[in-house]
Write a structure and sequence with these properties.
By secondary structure, this protein is α+β, with helices and mostly antiparallel strands. It contains 4 helices and 12 strands. The radius of gyration is 22 Å and the shape is globular.
Length: 295
């Protein structure tokens, strides 16, 4: 009787193991399919909607709106008068597919993108990496963790803006999230910024391009670090300028990489967030507004 029970449980154990193997293989196949589908969508968007424009062909301005309601009025921009032209240093810039001389802006055809994907609010490109995606925004910070740009279910999700951020305003701390996928898609290649000690030897690698329907922005990275998920680097609401400056001081002090300038003052921060150390931590990247132009 005991031998029969032992044999029975052995058979059950084998069946369970086979089931787990089949389930695991199906997950792997499904994940590869989702990655391939996402890449197809992305390649199509890049081909039809993303255009580089040399900076000398477009007037360049740095305009930081006062987010804290000072008595200077809503049309006042910190540090510079409205629409002041500035000289932009021409330097070598590393892009995703090419190495070229001269800065540029990205011009995005949002009509083309939004006709197919209406929840797109911006377009993001991190210089020197394969991170170049239309950014979506949902009603919470959960939906696009498990849904693609077309709102279909997807285990790899799609890069998205914090639901509390506003692409029409872009002041304070604007936060973008994306999964760290093992094949280095989505935000997977952002680990270069903290793991490659010589990454910021190239100044071009500190630039992030962010385009909304109204403006094209170029941000410059000033802090990169890994953090507990409990640290509120994704804070978006600030009661006054002092509270924002306290936040800025903290995130500047957390920087863990060399060759970037953390001694900056700004009222406009772009924050990128992805998983790190098998999901136990977060990789966080903060950048300040370097220049922008109306579209």
């Amino acid at each position: 009787m005991f031998k029969r029970l032992t044999s029975f449980f052995r058979v059950i154990f084998i069946i369970i193991c086979i089931g787990l193997i089949i389930f695991g293989l199906s997950k792997i196949i499904n994940n590869k399919t989702e990655i391939a589908d996402a890449q197809t969508i992305l390649d199509d968007i890049k081909t039809t909607a993303a255009i580089k424009v040399d900076v000398e062909d477009k007037k360049s301005t740095i305009r930081e709106r006062d987010p804290f309601g000072t008595d200077l009025g809503g049309d006042y921009y910190w540090g510079l008068d409205d629409d002041i032209d500035i000289d932009i240093e021409v330097k070598e810039a590393t892009t995703i597919n090419e190495k070229r001389t001269g800065n540029y802006y990205l011009e995005i055809d949002f009509d083309e993108i939004k006709a197919e994907y209406p929840n797109v609010v911006a377009y993001l490109k991190v210089n020197g990496t394969n991170v170049e995606y239309p950014i979506v925004q949902g009603e919470d910070n959960k939906f696009y963790l498990k849904h693609s740009i077309d709102d279909s279910e997807s285990g790899i999700g799609w890069p998205f803006m914090d639901y509390r951020s506003d692409s029409d305003v872009m002041v304070g701390n604007t936060v973008i999230y994306g999964h760290n996928i093992k094949n280095k898609t989505m935000f997977g290649e952002l680990t270069k910024l903290i793991n490659n000690k010589k990454w910021f030897d190239s100044e071009a690698n500190s630039e992030i391009y962010f385009v909304t329907e109204d403006k094209t922005y170029v941000y410059k990275i000033f802090s990169v670090y890994n953090s507990s998920p409990k640290f509120n680097y994704f804070k978006t609401d600030f009661e006054n300028i002092d509270e924002f400056n306290d936040f800025l001081s903290v995130v500047k002090s957390k920087n863990k990489v060399k060759n970037i300038d953390s001694d900056i003052n700004t009222t406009q921060v772009l924050t990128l967030s992805t998983c790190y150390n098998s999901g136990t931590q977060r990789l966080v990247i903060h950048a300040y507004l370097e220049r922008s132009a109306n579209r």
